[in-house]
């Protein structure tokens, strides 16, 4: 089915949402819900389809043409298509790297626009819907994990307008983090913190995962910067906000993963022995067999880190 569905997508235009959105979802599910052997073949099929990759390029570019939705709680068909497009491209990046699959057509994206979609640098954010933000953060995680180096993707560091107004990296830190700049890193971290405060389950999972990958990327590039980002005092206030209200707040998956992140990078000013003891106490009193899978997995990682 991958052959006819991917060929059908390649013949569509981005405005053919009723046909494209379920088709891209099918391709996405086909990549994730199959055996490793079949997965490698599926990646090869999709990456050999030049028309499909050209279509995906057009779909992603529609992100920057979308205005702020008038009803933030409503996911339109165009927004749903964007979500599917970003998720599929993120998966293709991941699996192309894993299997070293031959690429017949590259995708080109402006990194600044991708970051600004999450950072909300403009007065009106491009996207307000949680699924759209989650999809873009999944893509951002994929490129961070590959150090912005992929044979499938061509990353443009700055938009043309910014190239004319902003100087090139002026510090050793910016040069080490290239194509990211220190200002972009801190803006991204603040925006991720703000998204966490909303306590939206879908957003929280994506935000914490993105923050984990970002700090890992920074640690490889410049350990001092990574430790500086992980020990920002605002993280402490963020934890207090996440822990307010609710039963057994320390056993929330996103809280456990944040605590694990702070422990990993030795942020003793963020997480203290008192918080560690409270988590251990709540875990000791909980019925581990009844914990949700996400909580069990996060608790396991936390205990291993301790």
TrEMBL record:
One of its GO terms (biological process) is meiosis I. InterPro entries: Immune_Signaling-Apoptosis_Reg. It comes from the Eukaryota. Coiled coil: none annotated. Signal peptide: none annotated. This is MEI1 protein. It comes from Smutsornis africanus (Double-banded courser). The gene is Mei1.
């Amino acid at each position: 089915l991958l052959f006819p569905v991917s060929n059908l997508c390649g013949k569509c235009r981005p405005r053919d949402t009723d046909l494209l959105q379920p088709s891209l979802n099918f391709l996405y599910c086909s990549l994730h819900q199959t055996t490793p052997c079949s997965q490698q073949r599926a990646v090869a099929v999709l990456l050999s389809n030049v028309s499909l990759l050209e279509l995906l390029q057009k779909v992603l570019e529609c992100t920057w043409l979308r205005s702020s939705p008038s009803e933030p709680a409503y996911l339109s068909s165009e927004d749903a298509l964007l979500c599917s497009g970003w998720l599929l491209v993120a998966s293709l990046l991941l699996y192309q790297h894993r299997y070293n699959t031959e690429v017949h057509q590259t995708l080109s994206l402006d990194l600044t626009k991708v970051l600004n979609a999450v950072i909300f640098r403009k007065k009106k954010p491009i996207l307000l819907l949680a699924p759209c933000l989650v999809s873009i953060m999944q893509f951002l995680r994929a490129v961070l994990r590959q150090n912005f180096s992929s044979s499938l993707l061509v990353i443009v560091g700055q938009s043309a307008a910014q190239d004319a107004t902003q100087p090139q990296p002026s510090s050793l830190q910016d040069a080490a983090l290239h194509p990211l700049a220190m200002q972009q890193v801190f803006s991204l971290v603040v925006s991720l913190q703000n998204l966490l405060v909303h306590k939206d389950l879908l957003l929280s999972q994506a935000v914490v995962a993105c923050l984990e990958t970002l700090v890992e990327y920074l640690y490889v590039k410049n350990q001092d910067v990574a430790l500086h980002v992980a020990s920002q005092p605002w993280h402490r206030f963020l934890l207090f906000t996440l822990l307010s209200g609710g039963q057994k707040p320390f056993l929330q998956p996103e809280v456990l993963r944040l605590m694990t992140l702070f422990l990993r990078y030795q942020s003793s000013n963020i997480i203290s022995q008192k918080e560690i003891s409270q988590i251990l106490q709540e875990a000791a009193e909980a019925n581990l067999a009844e914990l949700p899978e996400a909580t069990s997995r996060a608790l396991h990682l936390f205990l291993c880190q301790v």
